[in-house]
Amino acid sequence: MPAPRVLSALDVARIQLYHFKAIVIAGMSLFTDAYDLFCIAPVLKMLSQIYYKKDSVGTPLLSTFYAIALLGAALGQLFVGYLGDRLGRRRVYGICLMIMVLSSFGCGFSVCTTRRSCVMASLGFFRFFLGLGIGGDYPLSATIMSEFANKRSRGTFISAVFSMQGLGILMSSAVTMSVCSAFKKAGERSSEKTRAEESDIAWRLILMIGAIPAALTFYWRMRMPETARYTALVEKNAVQAEKDMQKVMSISEIDEDFREEPHTSTCSYKLFSRRFFSLHGLDLFAASANWFLVDVVFYTSNLLLSQIVSLSNKPSSTANVYDSAFEAAKVAAIVAACSTIPGYWFTVYFIDRIGRVKIQIMGFFFMAVVYLAAGIPYSWYWLHEKTNNKGFMILYGSIFFFSNFGPNTTTFIVPAELFPARFRSTCHGISGAFGKLGAIAGTVGFLWGTKRDEEHKDVFPDVKRVRIAFFILGGVCIAGMLVTYFFTRETMGRSLEENEEEDIDN
């Protein structure tokens, strides 16, 4: 079977068991990514109680701690994305998983137990390497799933992989609440010294559990073959590509209703050459800019949520080290179950019916509307004690629905479909790295923009500053709509090779 025939067979192959197996194997890494990224917020609340006592973790340390894992993720996306194109998707796929497993355990074994500066430095060190593994996993998971999928269901498969993030967020909340409840109950019968030692074990246990799902999928990840598109188009070995695919899928029979002329890539130019920029410069700009903009909004929204919830949950005088972490995890679980996860699965259902561009514009639009609707009367919600804030929380929760039934998911899908096989993982990594830079800008900017002063530390979050943050985030969403409308190409229903042929013909 020549290379074009292999590619055509993949494009029209019926949905088979291996497609679902690939979703689980690739998706489990996104599950682990979300667990590790989102469990840190309640853990930081515990660390504040354990090591900082009455003092809170300062803004410089807090912003540095959030930024270091995101910076590691950005570097991982760039470096591993490049290696995925040079060495093959499969060869570096397992390396990312091992980095995630070892660094998760490293976070739990942070070397100090008494000196808070040593604990935070050690934890930050391992979080950076965890970020490398998490970031590297993004381009590989998206690329592998896009290259295994048929063109009719490709968006559904890639978004299903990404939707595992929602389950990871839910699991991180469930584990945090379970650990906090168990240790709190055990601590009622312990001495004060024993309770202090147990609380130091609790946060480490939460972080280390994140290594378990990644370790469980390592064996199956190593048994995955190289993608046929990489073997046929990059390694130029169509015979091996056919053998690899026949081990896991039936590609010998093509649906008669979808028999068509095969497409193959004619890519012969180099990455970042003049030819590359003339054909894919706007694609790379659009993918990177949209990912930057949505991550500014997405990560800032999560920080805003924790601060808004802290306003309506005043700490009691009897609160212990576990209560604030439990409350933060409970709110995250409610938002994940009611808003985040439904948003992911709406995208899974509609992505190959509506299209990437329409869903992305719609998501940005409704997020902008919600930010303005919540931001304009923001002071009314929180400055009047008799006001019922449930309506506000429902409104704010819809941001996470339209983020995931919108640009947070589509920005993961589109870069895996637009670029030639020789550059696909690299360009996805570049786009994702810009996203993580947006996350750093959003989180660090928000933390410093709403920084408390000593005179008004009891009235945080500052209403005026949070309203300004809402308006800024609404403006960012409008910018995302414009970038998507003018620069993002629709890829629904087209083979990966057709996207490049369209540019060459034009």
From TrEMBL:
Matching InterPro entries: MFS_dom, MFS_sugar_transport-like, MFS_trans_sf, Sugar_transporter_CS
A Gene Ontology biological process term: phosphate ion transport
Compartments in which it is found: Membrane
Pfam hit, one: Sugar_tr
Listed transmembrane segments: 20-44, 56-80, 92-111, 118-136, 156-180, 201-220, 331-351, 363-381, 393-414, 426-448, 468-487
Record carries keyword Transport: yes
Membrane topology: Multi-pass membrane protein
Chief place where the protein resides: membrane
Recorded family membership: Belongs to the major facilitator superfamily. Phosphate:H(+) symporter (TC 2.A.1.9) family.
Name of the molecule in the record: Major facilitator superfamily (MFS) profile domain-containing protein
GO molecular function, one term: symporter activity
Keyword Transmembrane helix in record: yes
Database matches in Gene3D superfamilies: MFS general substrate transporter like domains
Any single Gene Ontology cellular-component annotation: membrane
Location of the Major facilitator superfamily (MFS) profile domain: 22-492
Domain of life: Eukaryota
Keywords tagged on the record: Membrane, Phosphate transport, Symport, Transmembrane, Transmembrane helix, Transport
PROSITE patterns xrefs: MFS (PS50850), SUGAR_TRANSPORT_2 (PS00217)
